[in-house]
UniProtKB/TrEMBL annotation:
GO terms for molecular function: glyoxylate reductase (NADPH) activity; NAD binding; NADP binding. Pfam families: NAD_binding_11 (PF14833), NAD_binding_2 (PF03446). Residues 229-347 form the 3-hydroxyisobutyrate dehydrogenase-like NAD-binding domain. Belongs to the HIBADH-related family. NP60 subfamily. This is Glyoxylate/succinic semialdehyde reductase 2, chloroplastic isoform X1. GO terms for cellular component: chloroplast. Residues 67-226 form the 6-phosphogluconate dehydrogenase NADP-binding domain. Signal peptide: none annotated.
């Protein structure tokens, strides 16, 4: 870890980031400027150093992958790929349902029929899949991306999966001689659209350095967390906290209404105090109206809670609050709310749903 916190090293990394400026992506907004690098101490059980990068670098054509692949054009994958295209990048896309790719094709993206064809035709391929099973199939299946990988190429999985899945994909990609990186994102639909995602990366550092400018097009900050699996673990911990917060917030909204308070005022009070979080002010008003426009599907939040509980079990860490929240999301799923926003978990606390 010591080498990561030395001033000289930070200066070199900053210099490298600033050197990666580009005419290859000429339409990158002006606000994508160099940002300082911070280092933080690591703790068990993931005792690896990590670095936070909090600005977006300018890009140089000769240091950027010329051809970018993107697998999985869903709620998150679509705006991420769109931002790369709008920045001037050469993007090839794939999705199980081709029609979801059509708007990107109209913007200039190429299309391939299988993940392996995308990987074979691109220098770096990103994947954003819904769950571990899909992530493994798209990377390692019959027509998976690994079949198109070779030395000199890179694979970046930005899906939210468990550590074991990340390691499995990493191993399969590495066996081809290519480089691999996990980079799950913190953020939902709107941050993805606005290029404000947070990337939690781990794996091959050289690939991280190569794709950093691309991450900066899609996000507002990026963390390098060391060994493969640490990115997945960080994302699961973050989503475990978020899911528990939403469940508690739902209880508060319903309790305030039951005792005769205006839940809209509660949202204002919470949003101005020490427990303020953007999630409350963004989700609260629609929750009060029993409306749940999907930014982060409830089924994905429940999946992440399940994976986080498995992670906690693997290190014998009690997580009773997250376990209780998980049960509420399971109730909501059982009542057909899987594809609603995860804020629909409030419905599982209403008496009419539990009868």
């Amino acid at each position: 870890m010591s080498s990561l916190v030395k001033t000289s090293y930070s200066h070199n990394v900053a210099s490298t980031a600033m050197a990666m400026c580009s005419s290859f992506c000429p339409q990158i907004p002006n606000q994508f400027r160099g940002r300082p690098i911070s280092s933080f101490p690591s703790r068990q059980p993931f005792s690896v150093p990590f670095k936070a990068f909090t600005s977006q670098a300018n890009i140089k054509e000769d240091q950027l992958p010329a051809r970018i692949g993107f697998l999985g054009i869903g709620i998150m994958g679509f705006p991420m790929a769109q931002n790369l295209i709008k920045a001037g990048c050469d993007v090839t896309v794939w999705n199980r349902t081709k029609s979801k790719c059509e708007p990107l094709i109209s913007l200039g993206a190429k299309y391939k029929s299988f993940p392996e064809e995308v990987a074979a035709s691109c220098d770096v391929t990103f994947s954003m899949l819904a769950d571990p099973e899909s992530a493994v199939d798209v990377a390692c299946g019959k027509h998976g991306a690994a079949n198109g990988m070779s030395p000199g190429k890179g694979y970046v999985d930005v899906s939210t999966v468990d550590g074991e899945t990340s390691k499995l994909i990493y191993g399969r990609i590495k066996a081809t001689g290519a480089l691999s990186l996990e980079a799950p994102v913190s953020g939902s639909k709107k941050p993805a659209e606005d290029g404000q995602l947070i990337f939690l990366t781990a794996g091959d550092k050289s690939l991280y350095d190569t794709v950093a400018p691309l991450l900066d097009i899609m996000g507002k900050s990026r963390f390098y967390l060391g060994d493969i699996g640490n990115g997945a673990a960080m994302k699961l911990v973050v989503n475990m906290i978020m899911g528990s917060m939403m469940a508690s917030f739902s209880e508060g909204l319903l309790l305030s209404e039951k005792v005769g308070l205006d839940p809209s005022v509660l949202v204002e009070v919470v949003s101005q105090g020490a427990i303020s979080a953007p999630m409350y002010s963004m989700k609260g008003p629609s929750m009060i109206q029993s409306l749940y426009p999907t930014a982060f599907p409830l089924k994905h939040q429940q999946k992440d809670l399940r994976l986080a509980l498995g992670l906690a079990e693997s290190v014998s860490q009690p997580t009773p609050i997250a376990a209780a929240a998980n049960e509420l999301y399971k109730v909501a799923k059982s009542h057909g709310l899987s594809d609603q926003d995860f804020s629909a978990v409030i419905e599982s606390l209403k008496g009419k749903l539990q009868q």
